[in-house]
């Protein structure tokens, strides 16, 4: 498979006619061939028409067929081999090992969703059999399952060119739910997007899925992205990126004649709380792992530790000194795009010039295109409370340490925070009582509370929550990582007194798919015949 710069609209690969754009080599800033033809609104219309036509067929494919489809995408991505890895390294500037790891995560995610589909629990099948003799009124036969919402528009994320892009978590969970997907590719990695897009398109063909199950479009967010979200045949949106773009999409989706859910993962500063005993006993060691987490992947993770809260005193001073020393030794790293680097520099300058903020360390500068030079800042609890701008995410390796006079102030600051993806507590047993008193506030503010670690390195599993109250995500009832992500794209349908011949397979009396039922309110495991 070669990169040709084509749109993939159903099974047709064709050149877009709405301008040409190029990928940049992230390390050198040089243009990479070939050019990518942009999509027009007519292309959006064609992709939506195909997706809509595919929906009823795709969502009724058997669990086995859909699971095999997901596994085939995974196999086709692996079959792209080094071509994919090399292009992804060039476009993203991420090290080869990270890209290989991300490919493994992408493939693992697809396979995990194949398992979820095979198990059939996502259908949440429920059966309340008729009670014709019930007095004073008989009960009707009621059966319920979940179906896919409809075609989903997915916006590829810049910071996960594989795991949260064309065949990433949003796409895998939407397919698993039975929803066709139209991806708006991220301009930061178009070649990677086309290669993965071809792997998905091939899987559609290999597995005999309807043509409109998948399309990939290149073009601007404002024209093509918003055009997709406005299209009445699109029924949900998956997005990872800036708060600005996410909230624009939320507004557009809410203003539609039929409003639709937008699952946007936007901004989070992921507070890290250093409790007194842990800080006293092992502050220097925590500082080392903090700087490792802060600078990982040039800090371009939504779970990057952007805020440290601790009680002032000699132990915190030692932590600041150790973290500064570690950061000064850390090399600057290539950021994903010139735009992301500019946004990082702007955010860092704002903090550096803030009268209430002290710059305590910068990472080692480095020559080369858009290198992100890590930054560590210090401020007081009073300044943090007064200046809302100090809560803003600086996407990249930048973090703010807030000195609090006492634990009550630390708790009050947690209460003042916007919604977050994660909060990390550093505690020893002697800190448990204090930590316990923070938990209610943390549960209200964040999607994942973790202990003696950092939020980076998000496990793709069943109990993971990568979500949180606004603005960390648009809808804190969901997660974009892990098997629960499938719920975003499902809705329940109930069937009352439906003749057996018309019931969906999962709800037929003989339960041919052998899925688990909630029978009259009690779990019934894979009921057979
Ligand atoms: P972005 O600017 O939000 O772009 C993400 C996607 O949305 C792109 O495909 C973009 O298309 C599209 N888009 C942008 N503005 C739009 C709008 N008003 N309406 C519709 N679509 C729109 O994010 P980015 O390029 O990845 O990075 C920029 C900043 O986003 C970063 O500096 C960082 O602050 C933040 N970010 C946060 C996270 C996180 O996980 N928290 C992850 C990535 C980025 P175009 O091709 O037209 O740009």
From TrEMBL:
GO molecular function: 2,5-dioxovalerate dehydrogenase (NADP+) activity
Family annotation (CDD domains): ALDH_KGSADH
Pfam families named among the record's database cross-references: Aldedh (PF00171)
Top-level lineage group: Bacteria
InterPro entries to which the protein is assigned, alphabetical: Ald_DH/histidinol_DH (IPR016161), Ald_DH_C (IPR016163), Ald_DH_N (IPR016162), Aldehyde_DH_dom (IPR015590), Aldehyde_DH_Superfamily (IPR050740), ALDH_KGSADH (IPR044151)
Top EC class, one word: oxidoreductase
Alphabetic keyword roster: Oxidoreductase
EC number annotated for this UniProt entry: 1.2.1.26
Catalytic activity: 2,5-dioxopentanoate + NADP(+) + H2O = 2-oxoglutarate + NADPH + 2 H(+); 2,5-dioxopentanoate + NAD(+) + H2O = 2-oxoglutarate + NADH + 2 H(+)
SUPFAM superfamilies: ALDH-like
Aldehyde dehydrogenase domain: residues covered: 39-474
Family to which the UniProt record says this protein belongs: Belongs to the aldehyde dehydrogenase family.
Protein name in UniProt: 2,5-dioxovalerate dehydrogenase
């Amino acid at each position: 498979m070669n990169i040709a710069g084509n749109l993939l609209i159903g099974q047709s690969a064709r050149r877009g006619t709405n301008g040409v754009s190029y990928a940049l080599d992230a390390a050198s800033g040089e243009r990479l061939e070939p050019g990518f033809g942009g999509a027009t609104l007519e292309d959006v219309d064609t992709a939506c028409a195909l997706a809509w036509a595919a929906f009823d067929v795709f969502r009724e494919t058997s669990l086995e067929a859909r699971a095999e489809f997901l596994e085939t995408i995974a196999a086709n991505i692996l079959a792209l081999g080094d071509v994919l890895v090399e292009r992804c390294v060039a476009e993203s500037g991420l090290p080869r090992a990270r890209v290989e790891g991300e490919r493994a995560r992408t493939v693992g995610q697809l396979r995990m969703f194949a398992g979820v589909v095979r198990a059939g629990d996502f259908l949440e099948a429920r059966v309340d059999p008729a009670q014709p003799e019930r007095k004073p009124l008989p009960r009707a036969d009621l059966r319920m399952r979940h179906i896919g919402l409809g075609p989903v528009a997915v916006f590829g994320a810049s910071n996960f060119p594989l795991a949260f892009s064309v065949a990433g978590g949003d796409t895998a969970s939407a397919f698993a739910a039975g929803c066709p997907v139209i991806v708006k590719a991220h301009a930061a990695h178009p070649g990677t997007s086309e290669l993965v897009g071809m792997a998905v398109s091939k899987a559609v063909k290999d597995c005999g899925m309807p043509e409109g199950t998948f399309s990939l479009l290149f073009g601007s967010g404002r024209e093509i992205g918003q055009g997709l979200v406005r299209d009445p045949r699109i029924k949900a949106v998956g997005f990872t990126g800036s708060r600005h773009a996410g909230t624009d999409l939320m507004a557009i989706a809410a203003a539609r004649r039929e409003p639709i859910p937008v699952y946007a993962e936007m901004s989070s500063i992921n507070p890290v709380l250093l409790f007194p005993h842990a800080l006293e006993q092992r502050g220097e060691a925590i500082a080392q792992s903090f700087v490792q987490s802060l600078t990982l992947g040039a800090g371009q993770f939504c779970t990057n530790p952007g805020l440290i809260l601790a009680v002032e005193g000699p132990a915190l001073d030692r932590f600041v000194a150790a973290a500064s020393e570690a950061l000064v030794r850390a090399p600057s790293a290539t950021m994903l795009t010139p735009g992301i680097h500019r946004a990082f520099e702007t955010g860092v300058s704002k903090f550096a010039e803030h009268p209430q903020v002290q710059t305590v360390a910068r990472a080692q500068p480095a020559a080369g295109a858009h290198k992100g030079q890590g930054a560590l800042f210090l401020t007081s609890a009073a300044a943090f409370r007064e200046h809302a701008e100090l809560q803003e995410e600086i996407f990249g390796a930048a973090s703010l340490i807030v000195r609090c006079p006492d634990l009550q102030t630390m708790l009050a600051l947690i209460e003042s925070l916007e919604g977050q993806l994660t909060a990390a507590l550093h505690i020893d047993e002697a800190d448990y009582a204090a930590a316990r008193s923070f938990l209610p506030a943390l549960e209200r503010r964040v999607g994942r509370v973790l202990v003696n670690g950092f939020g980076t390195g998000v496990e793709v599993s069943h109990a993971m929550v990568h979500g949180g109250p606004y603005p960390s995500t648009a809808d804190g009832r969901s997660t974009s990582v892990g098997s629960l992500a499938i719920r975003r794209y499902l809705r329940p349908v109930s069937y009352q007194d439906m003749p057996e011949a018309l019931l969906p397979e999962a709800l037929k009396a003989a339960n041919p798919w052998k899925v688990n039922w909630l029978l009259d309110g009690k779990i019934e495991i894979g009921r057979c015949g």
